[in-house]
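Honest question from a wet-lab person: if I give you the sequences of every part of a complex, can you actually get the arrangement of the whole thing, not just the pieces? Trying it with mine:
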Amino acid sequence: EAQVTQNPRYLITVTGKKLTVTCSQNMNHEYMSWYRQDPGLGLRQIYYSMNVEVTDKGDVPEGYKVSRKEKRNFPLILESPSPNQTSLYFCAVGVAGPYEQYFGPGTRLTVT
Amino acid sequence: AQSVTQPDIHITVSEGASLELRCNYSYGATPYLFWYVQSPGQGLQLLLKYFSGDTLVQGIKGFEAEFKRSQSSFNLRKPSVHWSDAAEYFCAVAGRGAGGTSYGKLTFGQGTILTVHP
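Yes, you can. This is the full assembly:
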């Protein structure tokens, strides 16, 4: 069964302090993606990756970076977090290409 | 650009009643369409998907959805709701690239919260 691991699950940080949220999968799927969830806005895609070294912007990429150096990992990097990046973040893996996405448990980030 | 609208923010039904959650999409051609469910404090789980063919698709947990091209809709239905169906439901759309492949971009609606009364 597909397993998606996110770390940390909860994080409280201060404005401007760089942070990384890790995402890893236990399979060999090519597609991975990051989303943020905010009340009343649903999920919005931040970045996605079709394969190693192939990444593209989603709908809300500003303030975020990603890298895909190996297939199993897809970290989300906030170089200078701001309070408007306080949100619930989900990593997803495409178990049948991009079409059927399996979501991780989420990371709740608070930026003060 | 693709977009999804879920007109109902919150729906309340009685246990055993039928359910229909609305979803309207905007896309230049026939997209890939999905419904996901999120139980309180949980991640998202795929309920069903439409790629092509039969416009009535069956999913898990007794849910079904119907794709109506003329109305740009993909409404989710269940004939008899159970208390365990209380959750937030999200409709999503992915664009088709050349040769039927997706661009990889998935756009979600704002979600509909379902409350089930006993």
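Two things worth pointing out. The mean pLDDT of chain A is 94. Chain A touches chain B through 26 residues (CB under 8 Å).
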